[in-house]
Each structure stands twice: as C-alpha cells, then as structure tokens.
Amino acid sequence: MTQSSTPRNNVPNSMAQVGITMRYTFRDYLRSRRFAILLVIMLLVSAILTIVVAHYRPAGPLASVLSFYSTWWGSFATFLVALSGVFFGGDAISGEFQNKTGYFTIPNPVRRSSVYVGKWISAFIASSIILFVFAAITIANVAYYFPGQNVIPWQFAESFLFAWFYLVAVLGFTFFFSSLFKTTSYSILVSALLLLVAFAIIEGLVSDLAQIEPWFILSYGSQIVGNVLAVTPHLLPSGQISYVPTYPAHIVTTTSTFGPRAVKVTITTFNVTIPEGLAIITAYFVVTAILGLALFERKEFN
User: Fold this and answer.
1) So where are the chain's domains?
2) What is the pTM of this model?
3) Which of 123, 158, 182, 255 qualifies as a FRET site for 301, CA 20 to 30 Å off?
C-alpha cells in the first residue's frame, strides 16, 4: 500500500524574493528607454565638456588635477545623481499601482518589503553604472591633460564615495514619493522639482536672506562632493603657483560696500562640513526609506 504524498509549495524566503525582484527589475531597467536616455544625457554632457576644454583650454580647470576634478566632477556629479534618482526611482513603486502590475504580484505570497528592497537595489545598480561611466570619462580626460601625474588622488576617490553615498539618499527620497502617489507623473514631477530646482532655491533663500545654515536641506549635505576637491592657489618664492587642497571654511563672512553713502552689507556663506554632510545624507535616507516602505505596506490596490 503506497502512501500518497501531498505536494508542498516551496515559497522563496525574503532574501530570495529580493533577489528575484532585483534581477527582473534590473533587466527591465537595462532594456528600458530611460536607461538609454540617461546614458545619452551623460555622454552628451561629457562630450560638451571635453570639446569646451579641448577648444578653449581654460586656465582654471587645467591649473591642476584637483582643479580639473573640481570643475568637471564637482559641478556635475550631484546633478547626475539627482537625475538618476528621478529616472530610476521616481516611478518604481507608483508604477505598480498605475500599470496594475501590483495586482498580479501582491496577491502571491510575496512580501511587499521584498519588492520594495529589490526594486531599490536594482535602481541603485542602474544608477551606479551611469555614475561609474561618468567617472571613467572624467579620469580619462585627466590622464590626457596631466600625463605622468597621479590621475586618481585621494580627494577624488573620497568625492566619488560621497557621490555614491548621496545616491543612496536620493533613491530613498524618490522611492518615498513613488510610494506616496499612485500616479507616476506626480511622483516623478515632485521628485524632479524638489531635487533639481526647489532644494537649491530654498537653500539659497535660507542661507543668503535669512542667514541661517540650511542643515535640513539634502542638497546642502551634498556639497561635500565638490568641497572635498577645492584648492587654494599659493605663490611660491620661485614665482610659480602651487594649488593646495583646502576644504572651505564652515562659515565665511564677507562685507561689501554699496552706494555713495558707503552702506556696508554683511553676507554669511555656509559650507557644510564632512561629518555634517554625511549626517544629513544618512538622516534623509533612513527617514525617507522607512516612510516609503511604510506607505507601500499600508497602501491598498483598489
């Protein structure tokens, strides 16, 4: 007499679910138009910078290796990170509601947290590819204009790590708004406006007009990406100019005189310190990631 065995459904554990979600989402990112568009934007920016430097030979960027990195990488890395976050994280969760894909995924024995984390990791990998390619093009230009010199100083390595860490917070921020809205256009628009426009305006108003340190703004924390590459020119006894790495002072006060009555106006400029910048970026990631996951867990597909 044979004993009939009842088939059991082997449900993947949470880590396996994260891996499956990450693999298929990352594959979709690589095949999507958004990845191609962002890659083209990055290549166009790199091409324009390459042509401008090759044609005009500006003295500032070509003064030293760090000056070149400060002008090239320090000016565009944070913008590229913000753009990557909008492209890959702006509709990562809201698309589940608008495109109705969540109706087929969530009823299965799949944890929402696994879907959330898997999508976040795939967005992080896709964004990192864009950032790595931009860094490789930057290093290639430095190697061309400064042959025989150290083309990867520790300041650039540190700046790259800061940009990578900033990407973590940006994706947490965009995933939060993607979980907040059920429409992809809203989540993408709000994320893009805040990261690319609004934060810079608020930071300027708070710093320049109110004379208050904007420690609560994510873009203020991202200043460490460019500030670590800053240099100060020093005149040597031989008459040559040496460019010394100098991190900007935390608070800089300048007094200017205007008008015939010699009205004095004092302006205070704030530069985020490295510990403060890392703390701001960490706080944004932790808070927005937790809130985004909580919203996704509670939101119903109806």
Assistant:
1) 14-298
2) 0.89
3) 123
